[in-house]
Design a protein that fits this description.
Number of strands: 12
Radius of gyration: 16 Å
Strand order of the largest sheet: 6-3-2-1-7-10-11-12
Structural class: alpha/beta
Helix content: 10-25%
Shape: globular
Number of helices: 5
Length: 201
């Protein structure tokens, strides 16, 4: 576990991104398999009907086995898609098996933009989020673009309703003692790694 105290967020982000990039292809495949084992039979995954995931990039842990399993069970699955305008907005769009994807402006594959296939984030049951670093208190350090935080900003205004459940997905090497939290950061209910669950108390 990395000690984050005193490290500025950009320096911590660089250190953690390097750690996950150094994982070999075999280690990545094993981690994806263990992540699947942690989640596929979990009640939260089993009871969720509308699930958002992501496609891995920059060494992120791979949730594609979970995506395929969700589709096999007939669940509606969604991927984040960057809006053309405003460029800071991210939406969630339904993805079906074997659907054509294209790279976005960051080079990350996403479905071809279609308003008709999009769903409001607060109507999803479960959102599995990528991250750069996490702690045991629900802290999440993202890539720095703020796309997830902006999409979930409504949660600070709503006192009722708990949808969707927010799960961070990560390699164990991305765990730190305490994430330095900014005022706009949205906390996670739990983070799941290839080694276990870290639920927010």
């Amino acid at each position: 576990m990395i000690a984050a105290e005193g490290l500025p967020r950009p320096a911590l982000r660089r250190q953690l991104r390097q750690a996950r990039r150094q994982l070999s292809l075999t280690q990545q495949r094993q981690a994806a398999k263990r992540l699947y084992q942690q989640l596929a039979q979990h009640p939260l995954f089993r009871r969720s009907r509308h699930i958002a995931l992501y496609l891995p990039n920059d060494g992120e842990i791979d949730p594609r086995p979970l995506l395929r399993e969700a589709q096999r069970r007939g669940k509606a699955t969604y991927l984040p898609v960057l809006d053309a305008w405003p460029r800071t907005r991210m939406v969630f769009q339904r993805i079906k098996p074997n659907e054509r994807l294209k790279p976005n402006r960051f080079g990350i594959a996403e479905p071809v933009f279609s308003r008709a296939q999009q769903r409001r984030i607060w109507t999803l049951d479960l959102v599995m989020m990528p991250l750069v670093g996490f702690d045991e208190h629900g802290g999440r350090l993202g890539m720095g673009g703020g796309f997830y935080d902006r999409s979930l900003a409504y949660r600070s205004r709503r006192k009722k309703g708990h949808k969707p459940t927010l799960l961070g997905l990560a390699h164990e090497c991305q765990k730190v003692d305490v994430i330095p939290v900014a005022s706009w950061d949205v906390s996670l209910q739990a983070t799941v790694t290839d080694r276990g669950w870290y639920a927010k108390e």
